Fold this protein.
Amino acid sequence: MRITVFIALVALSSTSFGKNDWTKVCLNGTCSYDVEEGESNMGGRFDISGSPSAISDITSAAGWSIVNCTDSTNSQTIKIVCTDESKGCGHIFQNGAQDTIIRLPENCGSGPFVRVAKHWIPDDQSIPKALAANHTSSTSTMPHVHMLEIDGNFDKASGIHGNVSFELRTQGNLHPSPKQQKRQNGSGSTVAPFSLVNENVIIFDDMMTCPVASGQQNEIFLGSLLIQNVTLETTIIVISSGTLVPPSISSLSFSAPMNGIVDGAGLASLSLQGTISVIDFQFLDMIFASFSIADVVTVQPSFSIIANAAGTVEGITNFVPFVGFAYSITNLNFTYPFEVPAPSVEVTTPVSQFNVPALPSENSNAQITMNTTFKFLVQVNAFGQTVDLSVSYNVAENMSMNSTPAVEGEEVVCFDLDNRFSLVVANSGPFFQAFEAPGAQTIFEDEIPILSICDVVELGPSPPSRRSNTPGLPNTNLKRDIFSCPPVAATSLEVINIEGTFPLS
Ligand SMILES: *[C@@H]1O[C@H](CO)[C@@H](O)[C@H](O)[C@H]1NC(C)=O
Ligand SMILES: *[C@@H]1O[C@H](CO)[C@@H](O)[C@H](O)[C@H]1NC(C)=O
Ligand SMILES: *[C@@H]1O[C@H](CO)[C@@H](O)[C@H](O)[C@H]1NC(C)=O
Ligand SMILES: *[C@@H]1O[C@H](CO)[C@@H](O)[C@H](O)[C@H]1NC(C)=O
Ligand SMILES: *[C@@H]1O[C@H](CO)[C@@H](O)[C@H](O)[C@H]1NC(C)=O
Ligand SMILES: *[C@@H]1O[C@H](CO)[C@@H](O)[C@H](O)[C@H]1NC(C)=O
Ligand SMILES: *[C@@H]1O[C@H](CO)[C@@H](O)[C@H](O)[C@H]1NC(C)=O
Ligand SMILES: *[C@@H]1O[C@H](CO)[C@@H](O)[C@H](O)[C@H]1NC(C)=O
Ligand SMILES: CC(=O)N[C@H]1CO[C@H](CO)[C@@H](O)[C@@H]1O
């Protein structure tokens, strides 16, 4: 199945997170690293703090030059040269260089901070030619050429310099900023948020050739989801704090302020009999820009759509419900786990349509629940543990038809339809000290009754009796459905169809 997606990642224009100031030295027990929001990454800021000897700096701001270093990994051995002792090269040796957390310059290491696993002074103290010009000669007796074995194994730090704590804030819009729009178009008036429009997705599809009064015909179980317009404008914000040494997360919170619309319809065609069971059928999984501090944390947002269907059909129903849903979401505002003030959202229900054709036999019934979850998920991985934070828009549609005998030659046919909507924020499991267990909190929940009506209809003539249980060959059985041909029987004389709009004003 093909899904066309208009997705837009963000813009370089965001001003929330600035450029790193490489002239500012990190020698007093604090240091920060900024990431500008880009096409492939969220913006963010990562701050660390500890005792003055716990955090040091080997960038040129602290007087160091690096002879050789790769940016493909944090774990490596590097040669560094103190080129300007007055800037504070000596700071790293306070209380011993080993197990100090150091800031690396750009293009060195896969992340901004590493641990010194080992330090030694090589016998060869000659200054590489390239650096000789920069080397300010001093009267100091301090050796100027050093070797550092560095890595991102923060768990191996002895703790000799005390704990090193961190704070993280990362943020990403899932739509382009006005500035980018401007560059593309010159108007800046249209913002294209994350949007899915006019997509039809088959949820279950079974077919069998069955005997009918007039011979044989193909009977089906078919269910689909029509996505008319799912447009969600959101900014995902993840805030966390903890310790780098020893590696631990003490808090993690998530917010996704949002405006949007979830507009579509569930459709089913039920002419076989049996049970329908579709469990967690995921048909879309879209990855957005992420945030990463190597060997510490990655934050990966994504969006998925998951469908579930459960139903039973007995006898001949020829029930073909089409039931729309539309929820307009404005000013969703929450921080999970919930804090004061409580989360808030305004949900309105624009008009939707339904129609429920059926051509049932006596004593037949059909009931189907089709649930769809539209889910923003933020996977957070830190120090080898993973948790998923999510905000889900759940649409559950319950559609049923029931036929019972009335007086001779007539049947009573009843329809019941309702829609439910809920907005749920959750964490998938425990995560360090931030979450003890999986959890979920509901922000909004609503049930809309659509139709509850009964009608007395005339039955058609009884068909000549035939062997009714001749099973046809199942053409497809994609899911866990169990189905068979319904017994041949008299059905209502004409198709019953009720159509309308909801909610009633
Ligand atoms: C450390 O230095 C930075 C500037 O380099 C300053 O903003 C910060 O307040 C200092 N922190 C402490 C604890 O002295
Ligand atoms: C840097 O050079 C030293 C030898 O001086 C070597 O041991 C080390 O592996 C080199 N590191 C990198 C990242 O190339
Ligand atoms: C040497 O110093 C100059 C000016 O301060 C600087 O631009 C250059 O990057 C330095 N070279 C090295 C190898 O550090
Ligand atoms: C260091 O961090 C650990 C784990 O987070 C914590 O249990 C301990 O109390 C901290 N020590 C200090 C001195 O803050
Ligand atoms: C989808 O909904 C959004 C938000 O209400 C609206 O701006 C947009 O025009 C709609 N798109 C279509 C194709 O209806
Ligand atoms: C989804 O449908 C099942 C029945 O198949 C029901 O038990 C469940 O509560 C529904 N979920 C939601 C979110 O409505
Ligand atoms: C969300 O709620 C907080 C606290 O009430 C408020 O400060 C903030 O402006 C709200 N944000 C939005 C986008 O409404
Ligand atoms: C759906 O509606 C039928 C008939 O009204 C009811 O028996 C059934 O419990 C409902 N199912 C759900 C999941 O709401
Ligand atoms: C207002 C404005 O200039 N809109 C332009 C956006 O881009 C399209 C396609 O390039 C133009 O056709 C519009 O005129």
